[in-house]
Amino acid sequence: MHVLASRLRRLPPSCGPVRLIGVDGHAGSGKSTFAGQLAEALDGAPVLHLDDIASHDELFDWTGRLLREVIAPLGRGETAHYAPYDWHARRFGPSRALPPAPVILLEGVGAGRRALRPHLARLLWMELPREESWARGRSRDGTELREFWDQWVLAEQRHFAEDPSRPFADLLVQQCQKGYEVTEGPGVTVGPDHNVTQGDGPAAMC
Questions:
Q1: Residue 49 forms beta bridges with which residues?
Q2: What is the rounded CA–CA span in Å between residue 122 and residue 12?
Q3: Any idea what DSSP says for residue 188?
Q4: Is the distance from CB of 199 to CB of 167 less than 8 angstroms?
Q5: Strand order of the sheet with strand 19-24?
Q6: Fewest CB atoms less than 10 Å from the CB: which of 11, 61, 106, 142?
Q7: Is the pLDDT of residue 192 over 70?
Q8: Which of 29, 83, 17, 22 has its CA nearest to residue 47?
Q9: Band of pLDDT at residue 177, cut at 50, 70 and 90
Q10: Structure pTM?
Q11: SS (H, E, C) 138-157
C-alpha cells in the first residue's frame, strides 16, 4: 500500500493543487475499506465518499452538484463545501468543508464517470465481479435494505451500461488473502502485443 501511496504522491496535480484519485467499482466491492487504508498510507489523505453526495432521489444524477460544490472550488485551490446525505433521515445534513490537499480520494460507484475523469490524476477500479460484489453488499446491509438493493442493482446496471468506468481505469485493485494486488488497468496505453479486456468484467490476478 505504501508503494502505491508513494506512486500517487509523485503524480502531477489534476484538480488545481490536488491529485484527485478516483476509486470506483461495483457496490460491495470493498471501495470504502481500500480507500481508508490507502488514505492512511497517504498520511491521512481526505476521502470524499460518493455515498455522501448521492441520495435516494439521485442515486447517480449528482454530477452537476459535485462539479459545482467540490470539483470547481478545488480546481481554484479553494476549500470545497458539500452537505453529506443522511440515508436514514433521508435528507442532507450540515455543510462539511473539504480543503485542498496534496491527495484527495474520491470513493464510490461512479467515481470514474466520464464527467469526472478529466479531473482525476488516476482512476482505480476494484476488481470484483458485480454479482459477488452485490452479494457482499446485501449481506452487509441485511434484510432491512433488501428493497433498496433491488432498486440499486437496476440503477447501477443502467449507469455502467451508459457510462462504464473500468475500461478507463489506470489501475486494477484486487483484494487477496494478504492485502491487495494492484496491476495496470485497461486505461493505460499498451502495445499491440497486450490483450486488454474492455467492459466491467474482472481479470484473474490473485
A1: 107
A2: 10
A3: S
A4: yes
A5: 47-49, 103-107, 19-24, 122-126, 171-175, 180-184
A6: 142
A7: no
A8: 22
A9: confident
A10: 0.89
A11: HHHHCHHHHHHHHHHHHHHH
H or E segment and range at residue 34:
helix 31-41
Which own/partner contact pairs does 81-88 have at CB distance under 8 Å and 24+ positions apart?
82/48, 82/52, 82/53, 84/52, 85/51, 85/52, 85/53, 85/54, 85/55, 87/51, 87/56
What is the H or E stretch that residue 135 is in?
helix 130-141
Q: What does the pLDDT read at residue 12? A: 98
Task: Write out the three cell numbers for 170.
Answer: 489506470
Secondary structure letter of residue 68 according to DSSP: I
The amino acid present at 71, given as its one-letter code, is I
Alpha helices in the chain (DSSP H): 2-9, 31-41, 63-66, 72-75, 130-141, 146-162
As its CATH architecture, domain 2-184 has 3-Layer(aba) Sandwich (3.40)
Give the C-alpha separation, 78 to 75, whole Å. Answer: 7
Domains of the chain, by residue range, sit at 2-184
Give residues with Cβ within 8 angstroms of 12, minimum separation 6: 19, 121
- The C-alpha angle 129, 52, 44, rounded to 5 degrees, equals 85
